[in-house]
Design goal:
This protein is α/β, with parallel strands linked by helices and about 425 residues long. It contains 15 helices and twelve strands. Helix 2 runs parallel beside helix 5.
Length: about 425
């Protein structure tokens, strides 16, 4: 549904459950459309190191969703229905936008797990919130001294079958025969260990620890590695693990050992991790304090996508040593020419765009020129064009539609 209309324009006497089912029906119709099948094939081709008709193009609005679909524009008054409405309407907005969002013909429901200890780490992680909306938060880390490390515990995750089945039943009762419901379950602790390290120790502190307290930082990273591996073991033991090869960026054909009628393993899943918190350190320090602790996690997965907004230009040799690597992320701060030279056609290059350059310009010809220059350089490579981490549209409500068109035109021109 288009945004900006009031509830009365949508409802016309219908109840909210019927409205949700109508939205679900629209998504299902779009998912069955031949264009969506081409989108899936485009992703599967590129991530299988084949050459699709053109590189897939995808954007992730993140903070800009509040401008695309303001909370005040949600129709449902019942709190339990608003999350369904937001999810389905976001998919329809992406369909209208026209990027390569693979529309899934089902509604995902997350498996529910209980964590022990309840705080996950054995210590409470807090943040200092901004004084005003849109401001920056700051870390309030619990690990202030070496003695605080004694409080850390390895978390364990146990499947809450009754709550999971309740969530599945509620979704099925709402969506009925309009949209199937499917369980969704992945790793509880990401291999992006730096995020947790910064939350527990503080970003400034882990930078200082690389020099002043290296053994303490090694201790923290080893703990996080072990916690991630234990979480993966707990999930596999629950037999709830599901695949993630129908998601944007990592959409692919099935891979890993055929489980037959048995449960999946992490060899049937993608890992998508990064090292943003370690961006400022040298390649040697990044390898010692981050990558070496990530590798035992990543080797458990079938495929790995590595990187986000960090500059990996000088760290590419380390990235290319990652087991099961399939996607190398080239951020706006990573040198594209160096990535092309190092990666060649052995992996997929995820060419990330700089959100501020896309949003904060009156002249979209600069966007077009940048996309065409990059697509020309990438011609012959296996690559994706991705725009993420948007926080605002800066008064240009159609900017993502324009960017999508320009990116797809550039990808087709240099296919």
């Amino acid at each position: 549904m288009a945004k900006g209309k009031g509830a009365a324009d949508f409802m016309n006497g219908r109840d909210e459950r019927s409205y949700i089912q109508d939205l679900a029906g629209q998504v299902m119709a779009a998912a069955a459309d031949k264009n969506n099948q081409r989108v899936f094939q485009r992703w599967r081709d590129v991530n299988a190191l084949r050459h699709p008709d053109r590189a897939p193009v995808w954007c992730r609005p993140v903070g800009a969703w509040e401008e695309l679909l303001p909370t005040d524009d949600l129709v449902c008054s019942q709190a339990e229905l608003r999350s369904y409405e937001r999810y389905l309407r976001q998919l329809l907005i992406k369909k209208d936008m026209g990027d390569d969002t693979p529309l899934k013909p089902y509604f995902p429901v997350n498996a529910v797990f209980d964590c022990s200890p309840s705080s996950q780490w054995g210590v409470d992680v807090n943040k200092t919130l901004p004084a005003e909306a849109g401001g920056a938060w700051s870390y309030d880390p619990p690990l202030q001294t070496a003695a605080d490390f004694e409080r850390l515990q390895i978390p364990h995750f146990s499947w809450n079958q009754s709550r999971t089945e309740q969530s599945l039943e509620e979704a099925h009762n709402l969506l009925g025969d309009v949209m199937p419901v499917r369980l969704q379950c992945g790793e509880p602790i990401s291999g992006t260990l730096g995020t947790y390290a910064a939350e527990l120790r503080g970003l400034t502190e882990i930078m200082m620890d690389t020099i002043l307290n290296p053994e303490l930082l090694h201790r923290l990273m080893a703990y996080l590695r072990d916690a991630a591996l234990q979480g993966m073991a707990d999930i596999e033991a629950s037999t709830c693990l599901t695949s993630n090869y129908d998601d944007p960026m990592t959409c692919s054909e099935p891979f890993g050992p055929d489980p037959g009628d048995g449960p999946l393993s992490f060899e049937n899943r993608w890992a998508a991790v990064n090292s943003q918190e370690f961006d400022p350190v040298s390649p040697a320090m990044w390898n010692d304090f981050c990558l070496e602790y990530q590798k035992p996690i990543l080797e458990r997965f079938g495929y790995t996508a590595y990187g986000c907004c960090e500059n990996l230009t000088q760290k590419l040799d380390g990235v290319l040593s990652i087991p099961n690597l399939r996607i190398v992320v080239c951020s706006a701060w990573t040198d594209l020419d160096t990535v092309i030279d190092k990666v060649q056609q052995r992996h997929v290059i995820m060419w990330r765009q700089k959100a501020s350059d896309v949003v904060f310009t009156d002249d979209t010809s600069t966007i077009k020129a940048h996309l065409e220059e990059g697509a020309r350089k990438l011609q012959g490579c296996h690559y994706q064009i991705v725009l993420r981490e948007l926080q605002t549209l800066a008064g240009y409500p159609d900017r993502l539609h324009v960017w999508t068109d320009l990116a797809q035109e550039a990808a087709a021109k240099f296919a």
